[in-house]
């Protein structure tokens, strides 16, 4: 436990990368706050109009919206076993903590921000299978950005690819009518907030563990 808390990338994040994360959170939260319904719908319609293009693009966007999450997951597993095998436990703990925190926050957000799916509001049949529940937040985007953020903690260069794929997934989910831009940006914000909360909790645990260890050694 001591080794995990001492070596965990979340600890270094607070010192080295905090300004990046805080800036990202500020951007996404402000975006969510100022996203009124008319702007949200306008952005959605602009992106959805891409489906008027040739059928190959139509099918490719559908593929990104549904199956790219598996590609990202596969790349994540390959990245661990090829480049980060020695950090397997820490990376799995990082992703697990992010997932749990993001999941809990997403459930809270679902009850706070109601946002019907675009295909329901605009009365059209989606090109992929989409649930009829509240669209906020985007689960696909939440998972994709959680994976990309976890990679960012250990390998910033590799995270560029992961963030690019995660962004494509979020954008495709908007285009096919599964989500509004607010749902996708909200998922990004939730992941950023989850990272900060997890970092703070682990830092607190590390301090308590160090104090307990020091007291044990002094006895």
Walk me through the structure:
The protein has helices at 2-7, 9-16, 18-34, 37-48, 55-83, 88-112, 118-121, 139-154, 156-175, 181-218. It is mostly helical. The chain has a single domain (6-33, 55-207), classed as Vanadium-containing Chloroperoxidase, domain 1 (Up-down Bundle). The radius of gyration is 19 Å and the shape is elongated. It starts with a helix and ends with a helix.
Considering the chains and any ligands shown, give keywords for the structure:
single chain; 219 residues; Vanadium-containing Chloroperoxidase, domain 1; 10 helices; elongated
Order of helices and strands: HHHHHHHHHH
Total number of β-strand segments? 0
**Residue-averaged pLDDT:** 79
What is the CATH fold-level name?
Vanadium-containing Chloroperoxidase, domain 1
**CATH architecture descriptor:** Up-down Bundle
End-to-end CA span: 21 Å
Short characterization:
The chain is mainly alpha-helical and 219 residues long.
What's the topology here?
Elements: H1 2-7, H2 9-16, H3 18-34, H4 37-48, H5 55-83, H6 88-112, H7 118-121, H8 139-154, H9 156-175, H10 181-218
Helix pairs in contact: 2-10, 3-10, 5-8, 5-9, 6-8, 6-10, 8-9, 8-10
